[in-house]
Fold this protein.
Amino acid sequence: MNDCLFCQIVAKEVPADIVVETGRALAFRDINPQAPTHVLVVPKAHYENAAALAAADDGLADDLLKACHTVAVQEGVAETGYRIVFNTGQGAGQTVFHVHAHVLGGRSLTWPPG
Ligand code: AMP
Ligand code: ZN
């Protein structure tokens, strides 16, 4: 069995609060939200991080970004503003090594992030 948590969520083996599902992407609420809207958007296929996703070179990164915007519209934060974050590597705080975009919004977001 695949021991990747987000592969298990994609396979519906682990429950998640899914907000958007497309052919190649899944978006679900972060279990430890850092903002009123905090949704994770993952490709259904396993790539370790944003670099591996970019190297896939098959339009998947494009699909993922579009899914992020769909989430923002659906969550009602597209007009007020939202942030898309890919923590890439342990030094940046990545803890789950299945690439995921954090879509954050619903409050004012400071810059730079910590
Ligand atoms: P990162 O630190 O960028 O790798 O982000 C991993 C994110 O996954 C964190 O924000 C966690 O709160 C979130 N997370 C961990 N387990 C789950 C889960 N079972 N369902 C939803 N979000 C999760
Ligand atoms: Zn995975």
